[in-house]
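Box 4.2: Ligand-aware structure prediction
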Amino acid sequence: MLKPFQINEAEASGKLRELADKMMKTHTRALFQSDAQRFDRFHLSPDGLTFDYSKQRINEEVMNELVKLAEEADLKGAIESMFTGEKINFTEDRAVLHTALRGDTSKPLLHEGKDIMTDIQLVLDQMSAFSKNILSGDFAGFTGKRFKHVVNIGIGGSDLGPLMVCEALSGFSQGLKMHFVSNVDGADLANVLANVPADETLFIVVSKTFTTQETLANAAAAKNWLVQSLGNEAAVADHFAAVSTNIPAVEKFGISAMRTFGFWDWVGGRYSLWGAVGLSVMLSVGPENFKDLLRGARYADDHFRNTDFKKNVPVLMALLGIWNRNFLKMASHAVLPYSNNLRRLPAYLQQADMESNGKSSGRDGMRVKHETGPTIWGEPGTNGQHAFYQLLHQGTDIIPVDFIAYITPLSRFTDHHKKLLANCLAQSEAMMNGRSADEVRAMLSKQGMSENRIDEMLQHKVFEGNRPSNTLLFDELTPFSVGCLVSFYENKIFVQGVIWNMYSFDQWGVELGKELAMRILPAIEGGEVPPLDGSTNGLLQLILRC
Ligand code: G6Q
């Protein structure tokens, strides 16, 4: 089991607090100037990628103490607890075994006396057979037409992962057009249905519980639309498939067991894209590419489980995050992929990270006395550069950044790619180096600006710099490297949860809103108004008046 751990009381933390005081007064630019080997010292290059953390506000001493902190928290033991299936999701009394979904299925893993790897392989085989039949046209629509569109209906963990990976790997598409409907705002479904022909569209209803209000409302409306469009109730059997752990509810909805793909309670929603929840990914890129995605994640898991902490990418990502959050007091973290295909990665990580570590109760059941998960956000570069990067460069808050880039271009527009990479490097350089008052003065003077005007302009053009970033530079964007990237982030989140004394795999904060919506809905539908606070009641009355 995971042991309670108090970061503030750890021996390493005392030292880290002292080091933080010193580092607050140190400019990273000076660290580069005094150490020609800094990049060599602070980057890792496992196969296919480079993780550069030399632009963080760290030195060897800081890194040593951070590793000691991980050791004090018994991170090694925690990692083994997760991979071997101990019930580390304590509040839901469940194991956390999403890593098994991408594991080597020839090696048995016992969970409650049963080899789960056999079950995992059976579902993967079922998904493969189904995907091949859809892609070949052997499974066609009710009127005999080949499927050209797939609509994934699900929300949260049953949407963001498959959506993010389908977009990331759009270059590997086998020809089906993918659509995602998640929001209970009917406009979401209506927009998709307006653009797909019923006789060529396959719907996949993805819901672990098969009780989620949004998903069931969208699935029922899609079913009605299909039956109305094709004029026959029997069409549902050909046009619907489901992914769920709640088989009776799926059957009640009208989807046969043959077209239902299962998973297990030891897979958390936001960690589920590696199994049946990834069916839309497999339909999009085909079974072989899906297997490569799993292989990439497995490679990264093996690295995480077996590599010394000092050379371990997700462990270092996590420890640097803790350094920035708990010791340098930075409250936010931006993820900036320099790949348009990864445009949904920040949204995906927002859920993965903030739903996992956005908590204030410790594993001891007490309120924590330290900072936990930061706000995670981002957009792809270069778009973000023309928008919010202003604040990243000159805002009063310092926001650490992850830059993610690929050396090999994904499109035939190779010149674009050179510009993309140049921008990525330039941004991390600018954030770290900044531009001093002396440099600004010299620059403006060279441009012929008068001394008076320079004095007026100087402060506006100064960049303090010293804004930390990581760069994850991959050789190329492939199913394998995307699997690797996502696994790194998942495992980073796990490490931070261990050190922050969190239970990272529950999400009680999501439940309250769901519960209260169910209480207000009957009133909006014309029923009795429940007791509400003044503001909520006032807004409800405005809605009811229309
Ligand atoms: C993820 C969360 C949450 C969940 C959705 C959908 O970890 O539990 O985002 O994935 O609420 O739930 P269902 O898959 O049960 O519909």
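In the box above, the bound molecule is glucose-6-phosphate. Residues 155-158, 207-209, 212, 215, 268-270, 355, 507 surround glucose-6-phosphate (CB under 6 Å).
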